[in-house]
Amino acid sequence: xxxxxxxxxxxxxxxxxxxxxxxxxxxxxxxxxxxxxxxxxxxxxxxxxxxxxxxxxxxxxxxxxxxxxxxxxxxxxxxxxxxxxxxxxxxxxxxxxxxxxxxxxxxxxxxxxxxxxxxxxxxxxxxxxxxxxxxxxxxxxxxxxxxxxxxxxxxxxxxxxxxxxxxxxxxxxxxxxxxxxxxxxxxxxxxxxxxxxxxxxxxxxxxxxxxxxxxxxxxxxxxxxxxxxxxxxxxxxxxxxxxxxxxxxxxxxxxxxxxxxxx
Amino acid sequence: xxxxxxxxxxxxxxxxxxxxxxxxxxxxxxxxxxxxxxxxxxxxxxxxxxxxxxxxxxxxxxxxxxxxxxxxxxxxxxxxxxxxxxxxxxxxxxxxxxxxxxxxxxxxxxxxxxxxxxxxxxxxxxxxxxxxxxxxxxxxxxxxxxxxxxxxxxxxxxxxxxxxxxxxxxxxxxxxxxxxxxxxxxxxxxxxxxxxxxxxxxxxxxxxxxxxxxxxxxxxxxxxxxxxxxxxxxxxxxxxxxxxxxxxxxxxxxxxxxxxxxxxxxxxxxxxxxxxxxxxxxxxxxxxxxxxxxxxxxxxxxxxxxxxxxxxxxxxx
Lengths: 263, 317
Known about the structure:
Number of helices of chain B: 9
Oligomer: heterodimer
Radius of gyration of chain A: 19 Å
CATH superfamily of chain B: P-loop containing nucleotide triphosphate hydrolases
CATH topology of chain A: Rossmann fold
Largest interface: A-B, 39 and 46 residues
Structural class of chain B: alpha/beta
Number of strands of chain A: 10
Low-confidence stretches of chain B: none
CATH superfamily of chain A: P-loop containing nucleotide triphosphate hydrolases
CATH topology of chain B: Rossmann fold
Strand content of chain B: 15-25%
């Protein structure tokens, strides 16, 4: 078992009610799990908890998170530094916003690599370029010499994925990775993320409100509402045979081509 | 259906912006569109294709470099001063992000009645009653009138945005990604509300959106934009199997639809759209099109009528 989330509850600050309640998830290597739900349903909180990145006094009050059999909850700062960015990585909705806007991609990338591995600047630069090229970014050297704002949204997202995949993490956490992108770019990024599994054997948790993307990518789809899991299962189950009324309603709300027409 | 009279016509509208180094950014290139009463025209395209520029010109927030925008036969691109102010009541807008569209320090009743008071349609003493009436029209409880925007959910706020847009009983409403910030179930309710209001009041709507599936559900006709050009206009019920332009097909292929064949790999064009600062000579789509021929590199195809309500700008047809 790669990741085993056992019945966790997460609370922020002095909130009387936990933000997520009794959430469990088991993942094997190379598995892709999609978490869907509306805003405020707690989907992002789940993956933030896995990486120990709960903001504002958020904490796991119950349950345990095991990564490769070891509990992550008692990790020291040093242990987290070793884990994050090399064994578990994360990509965000807008990778441009996570990159320091006044530093060039290359300078940041080299820093990142040298933080995790003892290599020279030159070696780190070449590693970065190689990784960008693997993510099909044309003229990687140019990208390394650019500021984030000089790249398009799709390119920035590829840079984010390239950085996240540099140390071939076993688990990739993706928080709405395609929500800021146009449909054609979204399709490119989704395809690329699917290839990560084939190429690196990476397991992926993708959090999204795009049910189509979730269904396309996920081996398992988890539907959340108000911090609880209301339904989970494979694509066929969630799309066509959901037990839960909320899930069925959610599926009916998704606009489809050839679907219901209002006019 | 040639006896229908468009309420709003966009005729040969071009908008250029000066850019650095003496270059020009071509945001809209000879756009022709018509809006009919009681009908929705969906406008789809990727970011940077000029959808919002076009909408700003329709709302008289910007002026075309060339061409005219006719509202009931009158060119509104030339209006100025008081005439322009009085004209604004006819074309209203619903914004993408309802959190940013309101003054956070104004109560809902002041927000929805502001346009009415500005144009002296109602007296200040009638405000309370009018605000309730407008809120009830968008299926919100009348008591919400004394709330502030932050005390409402996203869907409720968007309803307030719609209430404000219909307050002046406009003939045309432009929605710029009006449902993109909402969850799907909320989106569904807002869409049903918009469609219902349109039927009741016979409003012409422009619905700018990047979700092709949603546009196909709620609009009568759909215009596809690419790099400042309208490349295809087609009846929305034909989007799924009647689209002709390679770009429209590429957009459709890239959609993750719940009814899609999940065993097939998702298709998409690999490249990205060129910058509007250097639009290629000829067809704007040439460098991403797999059926590009010599003529595509020389001549920009004009919109050609294929059949009633369906035209396409492509040398293949």
